[in-house]
Write a structure and sequence with these properties.
Keywords: Membrane, Transmembrane, Transmembrane helix. By secondary structure, the chain is an all-alpha fold. It has 14 helices and no strands. The chain folds into 2 domains: 90 residues, no CATH class; 272 residues, no CATH class. The model has no long low-confidence stretch (mean pLDDT 84).
């Protein structure tokens, strides 16, 4: 490759790296951007279109990362007709884009409200994730220390013990030392497989959360940690449904049509719930009973029915969403604290048991050595 070719390749690589960095940075700050864009659209900004807004942001010099992205979005707007799903593809999460596409099809007012709701929901979810990580961090570190100690048994502590007491015949080893030796052999053979299996199980669990449906999932959603996923996805489900059912001028979307749009703009689990709600609607259920599919806790159903009776379906769903948001955060905090203590105490118990076992083995080998020397 010529020098010019190398320069071109390096420049292209640098451009892609800068684009990736800008996307990653804005994705982390997307709640603020959603709110910013909603406020600009709500204010009218002189009747500017999305294309004009993006061009204006691209011309600003105060935020070079956003300017770089806005320039690309303006180009995509010109070629893609202003569909935000296409404009923001690869920058923001797909589930956000599906929701915004649905709202955009419902009108400008719905899009502004969707951006505001999405900003609130994003802050809620990101805050919940941050709280969960910070709460569980100590427990996870303790488990890693325990795993490291277990890995050290066959590769360090057990060989050191056998070398220290290598003059003691194995037939004089007591039951504690023999059990420890067998445990060391088992760890050396099976610990990597056990840790790999645990990682596979955890990965499978995480991947199954948005995909697993059916009767078993209905039962699992009543218990942690599935109930946490249900609460946060149910929150998004109700937010989108309330948004679609909000009157747009003289147009009011039917619940059946709104459910179809929710199913088309959500993951497998949410689409399954939308189908179940639609089936209950076809069966003649009305009010909050339509949503009695395991989408949220039963006690929220009574509150939802009261809100629907008092304010109508769209406002009732929004009030229920606010109640569900409070419940989800409280439940997340309580369960995270409980799991942190379970992990911490479990790891501590394992470490203390392992240390006590080592002392017992040393004492066992010391007695065996005394017996061996006394018999010589």
């Amino acid at each position: 490759m010529s020098a010019a070719g190398w320069r071109h390749a390096i420049a292209a690589l640098a451009h892609r790296a800068a684009w990736f960095h800008a996307c990653r940075r804005l994705r982390r700050e997307r709640a603020d951007y959603y709110e910013y864009l909603a406020e600009r659209m709500a204010a009218g900004v002189g009747g500017k279109t999305l294309l004009a807004l993006f061009r204006g942001d691209a011309a600003r010099r105060g935020n070079p990362l956003r300017a770089r992205l806005s320039a690309e979005w303006a180009r995509r707007c010109e070629t893609g007709g202003g569909d935000l799903f296409e404009v923001w593809s690869g920058v923001f999460p797909e589930e956000d884009l599906l929701l915004l596409r649905t709202a955009q099809q419902a009108g400008a007012a719905a899009l502004v409200q969707a951006l505001r709701d999405l900003a609130d929901a994003t802050r809620l979810v990101e805050g919940a994730r941050r709280n969960l990580r910070q709460t569980l961090a100590a427990g996870v570190v303790a488990l890693c220390v325990l795993a490291g100690m277990l890995a050290a048994v066959p590769h360090y502590t057990a060989p050191r013990l056998w070398r220290t007491f290598q003059g003691v015949p194995q037939d004089l080893h007591g039951p504690t030392a023999q059990a420890f030796q067998q445990f060391s052999v088992w760890l050396q053979a099976w610990l990597p497989a056990c840790l790999s299996g645990l990682c596979v199980v955890l990965a499978g669990f995480v991947l199954s959360l948005p995909r697993h449906t059916g009767h078993l999932r209905t039962v699992l959603d009543r218990h942690a940690p599935w109930s946490l996923y249900r609460d946060f996805q149910g929150l998004r489900f109700l937010l989108l449904l309330a948004l679609l059912l909000r009157p747009q001028g003289h147009r009011v979307m039917a619940l059946r049509d709104a459910l179809a749009r929710v199913a088309g703009s959500s993951g497998v689990w949410a689409a399954w719930q939308a189908q179940r709600v639609g089936d209950r609607l076809d069966a003649g259920w009305t009010g909050a009973d339509v949503f009695d599919t395991g989408l949220f806790d039963p006690q929220l159903g009574g509150f939802l029915q009261d809100m629907i009776d008092a304010h109508g379906m769209d406002t009732g769903l929004r009030r229920a969403t606010e109640r569900l948001r409070t419940q989800a955060l409280r439940r997340l905090s309580g369960q995270a604290q409980a799991w942190r203590w379970v992990l911490l105490l479990g790891a501590l118990a394992g470490l203390l048991a392992l240390a006590a076992w080592h002392y017992a083995v040393i004492d066992d080998l010391r007695r065996a050595m005394m017996i061996h020397h006394a018999g010589r």
